[in-house]
Write a structure and sequence with these properties.
The protein is mainly α. It has a domain at about 20-45. Helices cover about 65% and strands about 0% of the residues. It is built from four helices and no strands. Helix 3 (about 20-35) crosses helix 4. The longest helix has 14 residues, at about 20-35. It is elongated, with a radius of gyration of 16 Å. The termini are far apart.
Length: about 50
Amino acid sequence: MVKKVRHFAEKTPIKNIFQPPTIASLLAIIIGSIPHAKSFVFGRDAPLSFIT
């Protein structure tokens, strides 16, 4: 199993992993899972509500 993961990691260029949709998805998961960060972005009086 470790050999398969290592082989996959060596064959996949880092540019393909860190494309904008992947980064946006990871940020959405992080922001959605932390309540304080969620209230900072989503809501009527949120400072970063212009992003949404």
